[in-house]
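Please, structure for the following, as C-alpha cells.
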Amino acid sequence: MQANDLRKIGLSETEAELYLALLKMGASNVQKLVEETGLYKSNTYDALERMCEKGIISKIIEGKTRVYQLQQPASLIEFISKKKSEIEQQERIAKRLSEQVELTKKHFVSPETAIVLKGLQGVKQIYSDIIKEKLDYLAFGSPKESEIIIGDYYWQNLHAKQKEYRIKAKMIFHKSLRNWTKIIPKNLIELKFFDEEFEPLTETTIYGTKVAFVVWTEKPIVTIINNEHVANSYRQIFNLMWKQAKN
C-alpha cells in the first residue's frame, strides 16, 4: 500500500502517513506515532481525530492515554461511499440553487452597462446571448471582410441554431453581401441592401435591451450597451433604414 493511493481516495498527506504507521505498528499512542513518522505532535493529534471522524480508525482511552488503531479494511470503502453520498447530495443542492438563481435572473432588471471586447470572441458573445435568450434581432452595416474574418462555418452554424430555436431577424447589408441570400434561412431572416459605393467598416446589432457595435478590423472591436432606451432608439433608426433599403 502506498501513501499516494491513500491520498487519491481523499486522505491528506499527514493522514496517509499515520494510516501506514498504524498498519505497520498496530494500536499506538500519539507519542509512538510521532516518533515513527517525525510529524509534529499537534498535527498528529488533529489528523488522528479527523481520521476517527471519517471512520477509518478508532481510539481507546487507556487511563490518560489515547490509543489509536485501524478499523476494519472495509472502512475505507465505507469512507468512499459516504463521500459519494455527500457529493450526490451536494449536486442535488447545487442543481436546486442553480435553478433558483436562473429564476431570479429572469425577474431581475439588468442594470445599464457598457462593455468593450476585443477579438472574435467579442463577436461570438453577441450571438451567444441571442441564442441563449432566444431573441429576435436586427442588424445593419457589416463589410464583406466580415465573412473572411469569422468564416463561413460560424455563420452556417449560427443559422442552424436560429432554425432550431425559430429566431427571426431583419438585416440590412451592403450590396457586396448579396450572396448571403443563398445561405440564410429565408423563412426566418429578411435581407435588404443599400447600393451606396461606401462600404461601412462597422456593424450594429439590436437585440433585447442591448445594442452591439462591431468594428470589423482584423481583430474586431465590440462594444455592447445594455440600455432599453438606447435599444428602442436604434430600433426606430433601423425601421427608417428598412423602408429605404432595397430587396
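Residues 74-106 form the longest helix (33 residues). The longest strand covers residues 57-62.
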